[in-house]
Design brief:
Layout (H helix, E strand, L loop, with lengths): L2 H14 L7 E2 L5 E10 L8 E7 L4 E5 L11 H4 L15 E4 L2 E4 L2 H19 L6 E3 L5 H14 L5 E3 L1 H4 L1 H11 L8 H4 L5
Parallel strand pairs: 7-8
Antiparallel strand pairs: 1-4, 2-3, 3-4, 5-6
């Protein structure tokens, strides 16, 4: 690895993680007392820790929390994640197709239809017809349970997660910069690096 590659990598990371002084809030009303939640960001596998604060008008503010993973910082996606809560195009109820159109339904009916569809495919084409596809932001424990669900409940060998697709560009970049297609360190260990 050359010094230039290390500089570009560190520069990219420091530009991606932003300071705590800029939090994401869509409006400026009074906070709702007791309406805070400590959680983690759902956008990527970093699982940055954050706190959500609800306000009287329904808007939500996102604040980064101190943690070894994100060091009290959030990237642009994490900072702006609250904007999705009240977005006009956000789905707030399950939809099912009736006569070629998507119409709102209950969670019970949506689940019954999903189960019926999975069972139909399983009995018509076999266990391996169904598959489980996960997101990169699931914890190790959730990934384990999802794997068990796929193998035990669905009896399918087909389980994957979006990392194969969305992280392929990152793996290619890391491979070009460092000669290996995976990162085995934390971001905070890169910042003091001089090589």
């Amino acid at each position: 690895m050359t010094e230039g590659n290390a500089f570009r990598t560190t520069s990219f990371i420091s530009q991606t993680l932003v300071s705590t002084s800029s939090t994401s809030k869509t409006r400026l009303p009074e906070p709702v007392e007791g309406k805070t939640a400590k959680t983690h960001c759902c956008y990527c596998a970093m699982q940055c820790h954050m706190e959500l604060q609800e306000f009287g008008d329904g808007s939500v503010e996102v604040k980064p929390l101190e943690h070894p993973i994100n060091k009290n910082k959030l990237c642009v996606l994490g900072q702006n994640s609250a904007k999705l809560f009240n977005h006009s195009e956000r789905l707030t109820t399950p939809l099912v197709r009736q006569h070629g159109k998507l119409v709102p339904t209950t969670w019970e009916e949506a689940m019954e239809r999903a189960v019926a569809g999975f069972k139909f495919l399983k009995f018509k084409y076999g266990n391996a017809t169904n598959a489980v596809y996960s997101g990169a932001s699931v914890s190790t424990e959730k990934a384990y349970l999802l794997g068990k669900f796929a193998r035990v409940a669905f009896k399918t060998p087909h389980i994957d997660y979006n990392g194969r697709y969305c992280m392929s560009a990152a793996a290619a970049g890391v491979n070009k910069a460092f000669g290996i297609d995976r990162v085995s360190t934390c971001l905070y260990q890169i910042f003091p690096s001089t090589t």
